[in-house]
Amino acid sequence: MNATRRSFLKRCAGGVWAAALADRLAAEGMMPRQPHFPAKAKNVIFMFMEGGPSQLDLFDPKPGLAKYAGQPLPKEFIKFYESKLAFAQPDAGVLPSPRTFKPWGQCGTEMADWISHTAARADDICLIRSMHTDAFNHHPGQLLLFSGSMQFGRPSVGAWVTYGLGSESQDLPGFVVLASGRGTSGGVTNWTNGFLPSLYQGTVFRSSGDPILYLSNPGKLSRETQRVTLDALKDMNEQHMEDTGELDIASRISSYELAFRMQMAAPGLLDFSKETAATREAYGIDDKTTKPFGTNCLLARRMVERGVRFVLLADASWDDHTELNKKLKENCDRTDKPVGALLKDLKERGLLDSTLVVWCGEFGRTPMVEHRLGRDPEKGGRDHHPFAYSLWMAGGGIKGGQVVGKTDEFCMRAVEDPIHVNDLQATILHCLGFEHTRLTYRHLGRDFRLTDIHGHVVKKLLA
Amino acid sequence: MLKKCTVCHGPAVQTSGLRLDNSADALRGGYSGAAIAPGNPAASKVVQLAEAGKMPPAGAKLTAAEIAVLRAWIAGGAKYPAAPAAGAAKVAAKSTHWALQPVRKPAEPLVKKTDWARTAIDRFVLARLEKEGIAPSAEAERATLLRRVSLDLTGLPPTPAELAEFLADTGEGAYERVVDRLLQSPHYGEKWARHWLDLARYADSDGYEKDSPRPWAWRYRHYVIGAFNRDLGFDRFTVEQLAGDLLPDAGPEQRAAVGFYRNSLTNREGGVDTEEFRIAQVKDRTNTVGTAWLGLSVGCAECHDHKYDPISQRDYYSLFAFFNPLMDHDVEAPLAGELGPWLEARPGYEASRQAMFASYGGPELMKEWREKLLRVADQPGNNDALQFAWKYVGNLTNGLQPVLRLEESQRPREQQEQLVDYFIERASDVFEKEELEKRNWKSLQKEWAALRNGMPKITMAQSVRESFTPRKTHILMRGDFRSPGVEVQRATPASLPPLQGEPNRLNLARWLVSRENPLTARVTVNRVWQEYFGKGLSLTSEDFGARGERPTHPELLDWLAADFMENGWRFKRLHKMIAMSSVYRQSSKVRQDLKEKDPDNHLLARQTRLRLQAEAIRDAALSVSGLLAPAVGGPGVRPPQPKGVTELSYANSVKWPESKGAEKYRRGLYIFFQRTVPYPQLMTFDAPDAVLACSRRQRSATPLQALNLLNDPVFLEASQALGVRLLREERGSFEERMKLAFRLCLNREPKAKEVAMLRGHFERQAGLLRANGEEAAYLHPQSVDGATAEEGGAWTVMARVLLNLDEFLHRE
Q1: What is the pLDDT of residue A10?
Q2: Per-residue H/E/C for B241-265
């Protein structure tokens, strides 16, 4: 320790400096914080399947559609579409699902053949068939799903959770985004901090180049040189804090130390060499098809183990207006196996109880066909459908092995236990120990919350 | 009987604009229309809602007996008792909220320490300090002051020469000469334009999923920079941005100025309802005007009456009605020197266009195109391809759908041309391939492109115009474009002074900057103030409503607002007054005696240490290293960034062709702002996301900032260049060289302690590089006479340290 630092620490009488730093960290949300009430879930893995996965082909079997194949829906059902459809005509023909559904697990939840790995975890999964939302288009739908409102500028759910609970990790960001596929419609608005402090913004881990932007030393700059730079910075910044009496400088000093710890920790996080061959196989790390999403799933588990609070897996795109059979299969092939592996792995490691897992899109898809590429049935797809769709949750605080909600015979509307996106958000916060009406932030004179002015905790979903 | 209703629809509260306790109001109805149809209970909304159990929404419902009485009463004509309640007609109660009171110019207070007080600002601040028994701080050291005022006025640190000149000039008025010089610098316009662009949610792309680039958005930024440099009065600046197109003498600048509106996001997602997102833009424009000029969160009244401020939902849509008829209109907005050659070439160009188009049978085919599209627009049938083609006209052009509806002779010249260009490009949306091949369409497209490229270049601007046919405005129930309520006329909020003259956009703009408007001047000077002291006299510069912070110095705020208005709304005058004040010139050193008395420095007994904004950090690094390209204005640039950034754009669609040469080193405000994948350094350092008006930025310190400054190749390049600069410009000792480094980066002399500390690190670094020649060559790629590679590399590292210092990122 050099002379300056020694005199500085001496002057600060046994750790006042450290206390000041701790204050700053707490004020800036880097320290763990207590929720409103004790809760099971401490972390969230939020798998966002962008574009609107087809509930009719994955989660909500409607064998009755077969007899209407190619016919328009009955009039009383068409009327729901009179106001709005994105592309298709309201009187387009009904498209029954060619998928095979069967009951899975002890609970017997019916799911489709293409997601057998996910379905094999049916006893841990709470499948909701009665979701509904207000948006017909992707970006507005994603705004609503992530920030509770279709207006811009609000914080995303990951930011709210990190704001509420702080961070357990001292060498990784509290809120991490892992992207796969082609880039989502919502982009940064899906992990924005909105009006919350910037610290709560999701940090994107990238699949090419540096996992975190500018994480690696540039070019041939060595680790030793980086250390000289950081030591010199620390000395100079501490000296300046002493000269000016500005305790804010402690935040800058700690931010550089945390940056360095991130540089040191990230390679270990990304290094899968200590994972067993069985694990690699289960997640599909060595298979070209499953590798990108499998890598993200495995990273998600490793991050949760290291105290990352909220991991958002954003996968694009499930927006199958055309060639539904081909594209949905590709998406299932890419993702289903890793998803199943993640659930199983979390459970075996005892992490599922403290980790809330959510799998969802921003809306569902129509029972009618959309023919953008001509009338060939294999070229057909489904349009956006906000009135009824499916998603599932598992883990921390959630009662697995059940189906909640029912849709009508055409999957047009939720007829039992309809659950709005804001209800989903209220329930997610509840699982983490928050009363959603009390997790607020004052902005423009108003106490804003994730659920806007809506939302009810859905008790049926809870363990 | 109505007792259950009047809690929400009575004298105290009128939810959804409905009041039921007297005849006149009750029969007028609420925002969604009539509630009572006298004589017709079945058609009366109150009956329908009561019977459906929807009203009252909470508490006891009406009993069957009560509903029967209600029906009978309405059947009998809904007669109220003869004597209505006093003051039945709703009169907006006069608000007593401070920000809505007229701006008066208070007398300057008397102070004891008269020699300290140089300006009115000082007298207001000092009077308060004296009352609290607090002494102001001493003036900052001259070097600190120069750095502070240079960064505050131009966003750039002073050069060593400027520092030396100022330190040498000990004469009377030396500081004032600096302030005057800075205000005359073209970089002043860049710095202060940036603050306005935050409010104007300026960006270079559409936002939403598609996020297409806006190639001419920069013309608006160019206008704003020029307006600040010319010191255009804020009153005129307001009129030009909100109604420039309506001015009788509207030229290119005014038509570019209304590009303010065009900064709204545009949703070109395939399946959108065009009307839904047109309405979203009108709301955005209404809300932005509310924030930027009035400092009110008017957007809260989009769905319901404002909960805290006197803005009803009717007020909101009455304001909205001013902007409702706006249409996109791309126009020529030439820069100096462009117009002459362009005009000269026009007649020939126009003739060639017509001849070429005709020779391919274009006019007939275009007529058919129009007929087909308009047919499907008016009677959507089952022709998917045509439906899409019509949608594309709405989605892919800027405002050409309504133009297509006009007869050719009625179309504005530019838009007629844009429409022909679009038709030639997209004819295949409507016509079969064979049909077009028959006409050799590909060859037309080729010749057409060549013809257009041959025209002398002219700069375009995103402008607006009023719609061709009047547009009615309705209150939208719950803000939903599918639920129109009653029609409203253009009007300003009832709680503010009335608008003079015809209610049009021009008069709205004039109303905003009228002497009677209590908000605009207060809001504006408060924002200027916040950039000098870190927070406004009212902390919540975006919200002057009831829930905003009351000003710490209300009289000073009013004095400044009044003075601003009385003196032509000139910013430079205001800047000079603040920069010259003793309050501003104080040292920012932390004072132990203030820690308890005024921990947040509300009373301004010292200056505040402020972190530089994102752009200023980039600019400072480029400037001190000598890389900065100081050109002012013009199109945006795309500096290098990691490939992974645009990979996150929707379907990887965003392109980022890196700028070359000097363009790479332009100031931060010229960086192309791609809304869905913005330039990382800007976002990491708290630049706004350009979606909503941003009235004040955060100033955070995060690990991602550290990684950005340490490892971003842009900053490494600045360190390398600075290292070379130090080697070249100072040939003396280590200490001499370090002095130059400090003068460049921190604008002060180093302390002996600091030199000693850095010498230790320098030597350690040089030792490392002696053993690692490859790294030395990497850090110091440009050889400099008389310096070894390890020495050069170690200076790069010293430069890197300086560019990362907390002090470098701040002005004190």
Answers
A1: 39
A2: HHHHHHCCCCCHHHHHHCHHHHCCC
- Final residue in a domain of this structure, among B559, B585, B611: B585
pLDDT digits (tens, 9 = 90+) for A175-213: 999 988 877 877 788 999 999 987 888 988 887 778 889
Structural domains of chain B, count: 6
B628 found inside a domain: no
As beta bridge partners, residue A126 has A393, A402
Q: Is B307 found in the same domain as B161? A: no
DSSP assignment, residue B586?
Answer: B
- Domain boundaries in chain A? 55-160+179-208+317-332+348-461
Task: List beta partners, residue A462.
Answer: A398
The whole-number pLDDT of residue A188 equals 82
Contact A417, A405 (CB under 8 A): yes
Model pLDDT, residue A7: 43
Q: Which of residues 637-656 of B touch A (CB under 8 A)?
A: 642-645, 647-653
Contact B735/B645 with Cβ under 8 angstroms? no
Question: What pLDDT, on a 0 to 100 scale, did the predictor assign at position B87?
Answer: 43
- Count A/B contacts: CB-CB distance under 8 Å: 242
* B211, B269, B308 ranked by CB distance to A138: nearest: B269
Least confident among A409-423, B40-54, B284-298: B40-54
Q: Is residue B558 situated within a structural domain?
A: yes
Q: Which residue of A has its CA nearest to B539?
A: A444
What is the maximum span of chain A, computed from C-alpha positions, in angstroms?
A: 86
- Structural domain boundaries enclosing B536: 518-585
**Least CA distance to A89: which residue of chain B?**
B382
Is B269 within 8 Å of chain A by CB?
A: yes
Measure CB to CB from residue B761 to each of A199, A228, A372 and give the nearest one.
A228
Residue B634 lies in a domain: no
Task: Compare all CA atoms of chain A with the CA of B715 and give the residue at the minimum distance.
Answer: A218
Least confident of B382-386, B425-429, B451-455: B382-386
**Alpha helices in A271-357, H assignment, sequence order:** 277-283, 291-305, 324-348
Pairing relation of β-strands A310-316 and A43-50? parallel
Asked whether residue B300 falls in the same domain as residue B380, the answer is no
Residues A222, B768: C-beta atoms closer than 8 Å: yes
The answer on B347 and B432 residing in a single domain is: yes
Q: Are residues B177 and B258 in the same domain?
A: no
**Domain boundary pick from B184, B199, B219:** B184
Given a cut of 50, the residues of chain A with pLDDT beneath it are 1-16
Which of B390, B707, B749 to substitute to test the interface with A, most A CBs within 10 Å?
B707
In B, residues 608-627, which contact A (CB 8 Å cutoff)? 609
Q: Which two tokens stand for residue A357?
A: 């897992």
**For residue B775, what is the nearest residue in chain A, using CA coordinates?**
A220
Sequence-ordered strand ranges (E) for B275-375: 326-332
- Among B335, B336, B332, CA closest to B349: B332
**Predicted confidence (pLDDT) at residue B8 exceeds the cutoff of 90:** no
Q: Is the minimum CB–CB distance between A249 and chain B shorter than 8 Å?
A: yes
pLDDT at A153: 87
| A322 in contact with B, Cβ within 8 Å | no
Is the domain of B430 the same as that of B325?
A: no
Contact with chain B for residue A212, Cβ under 8 A: yes
Q: Which residues of B touch A239 (CB under 8 A)?
A: 753-754, 757
Check if the beta carbon of residue A236 is closer than 8 Å to that of residue B805.
Answer: yes
Share of chain B above pLDDT 90, in %: 81
Say if residue B328 is in the same domain as residue B343: no
Q: Which amino acid is at A156?
A: S
- Nearest-CB residue to B648 (from A153, A187, A371): A187
Give the pLDDT confidence of B647-675 residue by residue, as tens digits.
888 888 899 999 999 999 999 999 999 99
Is the CB of residue B379 less than 8 Å away from at least one CB of chain A? no
For B383, the closest chain A residue by CA position comes to A89
- Omega before B57 within 30 of 0, i.e. cis: no
Residues A203, B704: C-beta atoms closer than 8 Å: yes
